[in-house]
Structures are given as C-alpha cells and as structure tokens.
Hints:
By secondary structure, this protein is an alpha/beta fold. It has helices at 41-47, 95-98, 107-110, 153-159, 162-173, 189-200, 213-221, 233-241, 256-265, 288-294, 308-320, 339-348, and strands spanning 3-5, 15-17, 21-22, 29-38, 57-58, 62-70, 82-85, 117-119, 122-126, 136-140, 144-146, 181-185, 205-209, 226-228, 246-251, 266-274, 297-300, 330-335, 353-357. The strands form four sheets. Strands 4, 6, 7, 10, 11, 18 and 19 form a seven-stranded mixed β-sheet that branches. Strands 14-13-12-15-16-17 form a six-stranded parallel β-sheet, sandwiched between helices. Helix 5 runs parallel beside helix 6 (189-200) and helix 5 (162-173) crosses helix 11.
Amino acid sequence: MRAAVLHEIGQDKLEVLDDVEAVGFGPGKVKIRVRATGLCHSDVSAMNGVLPQPAPFIPGHEGAGEIVDVGDGVTNVRPGDRVLVCWLPACGACPACKRGQTQLCLAGFMNAGTPNFKRPGGDVFGFAGTGTFTEEVVVDAGCAVPIPDDVPFDIAALIGCGVTTGLGAAINTADVAAGSSVAVIGCGGVGISAIQGARLKGAAQIVAVDPVASRREAALKFGATEAVSPDELADAKQRVTAGEGFDYVFEVVGKSATARTAYETTRRGGTLCVVGAGALDDFLQLNMFELFFDEKKILPSMYGGGDVLTSYERAISLWRAGRIDLESLITHRVPLAEINEALDQMRTGAALRTCIEI
Length: 358
C-alpha cells in the first residue's frame, strides 16, 4: 500500500512509497482505511526533531476513515463504521483517567514506541502511535471513534486534533469569561480554533497575532475583532487594554520567545494559556519576583484540556448548529502523492489546514 515515509529525523521531504504494510493487527486492534487526513504542525515538529519520535516513521495523526477489520474483543466498532482517529486514547484505568483528566493518560504514548508498519527494509513507526499519511493503519480500538453519517471525513479529521485542541484551550483550559479581552498568538488551524472558542465564550475583544497577512485576514472571518502582525502587538495592547494587558493570551506557536511575549502581554492576574507544542530544550525564563508579584496564571493545555470524546461530540454539535466554521479551515486539498506540496503550504503559512485526500 502507499504511504508517505520520513526516513531520517531532520529531512524536510517525505517519500511516497507503495511497499508499506500495516502490521500489528490482532486482539484489541482495528484496521482503518484512511479517507482524509489533515497536516498538523506537530507532524512537521516530529519531522525536524522538535517533538521526539523514532524514525523511520509515517507522519499524520489527524485522520478519519472506515473500519476494515476488527480484532478479537473489539466491541466499540465493526467493519464499515466511519471513524475519526484519536491519537491519545484514554485507558480509563490509570490515575489520570480516574481523576477525570483523560487527556493526560499516557497509555496512548506507549504506542509511539511500537512499529505499526513495515517495509522490505525493516520496521516503520507511525507518528504518535498512529500514522495517517497512508492508505491503511492498524491502531488500538480506542483510537477509532465512531462519527455520525452526516460528518464528512475531512471535517472529522480536523476534529481529531486541531479543532479539539484549539476550542478546548479556550473553553476547557482557560474558560474564557464573557466580555473579556483575548489575544491569540499564532493563527494556523489550532489558533483559529482558539479564536472560535473565545468567540463562543463571549470574549469582547479578540486580537489575532500572526506574521502572515493571509492568516490575519482569515482570523477576522472566524471571529477576531482585529488582527495584527507581531510587531504591532505592543500597540494593540495599548489601544485595546490601555496598556494593562489582555485578560487571556493564547500562545499557539510552541516557542519560548513567543511564550515570553505572551506572558508580557497578559495583564496582572490574567491567564496565559500555552497551547503550542515545543522542544525539550527550549526553556521559558521567568524570574521569581514577577512570578509572585504579577500573579499571572500559566495554564498549559494538552489536547484541549478535557475529555476528548466529550470534546469531539461538542465540536460536532457546534458545527451542526453553525456556531463554528470548520469547512473554511480547509484552505488547500492535495492527494497523498503531493504531500510535500502540503508541507510547503504549512511552512510558508499559506494554509490554515491542508487536507490530504487518500
């Protein structure tokens, strides 16, 4: 079968091969025929080594498709079911799950170290234990979440990661207050979803911050009240908040430099919500006096900061009701054979989300 493979960490191109096989099928597993998958910035971060991932590997974790086969003991889905791929399934039994923090369950991460593909030359890993830049993938049954018939595969794929992450950051983690001021730094697919979440929560001012003009223009269509480039953020802070700082600032880039800017842009007593996934060796520096004196809340948000199954259902309900726009998030579509074009679209900022149709 066809799949897009990264041979070594640090390479910037994927090779589309037709000699890949999905392996590991058995009890508790399902085989999914992938129909659509989104390109998330985390895929690029894994390719360049920012996020740890063994290689060779197949990127992709934001996917949807149909169940081809189920292993013994699988009862949640059956062949023919339409599903989205959950890259971080909850085991339901660990301490985090029992506390109700299912987004912190580590069971899914254990899958990342087990190859679920192979080629004639050896084993191939799937990113985050999944790997959706392929025609078929074998995953734990908990990774396959049934979707209603009226939800297209491309929309379901987005809900599988970017939409859930951004919406959840605003709704679950930060719990944005009505009438508040918000700034979102980084306006790709996740940042735009955070903007939509802040709008749903009733924020009065939402300032989108991004260096790419097309993304700033898009942010205005999704609910931002104004959009500025990074060098215009200080002026926006002065104009919108009289210099005090925003009530909520979302960092959706994953770099210490933007996180520091976000901290400085947050008012005293306000909330900095860190959504971007960054590198292990990139450290955010805060001095102990400002940490104490400013009393700013720093809230990391992992996969939307809440139960993902509940978040999926909420996103579908909001989309059906027309309260969030998911179709317009998909600005580009390419076949799997043109996956490197999709990578270029992300790196240049031309795309909010590119859908790879398989």
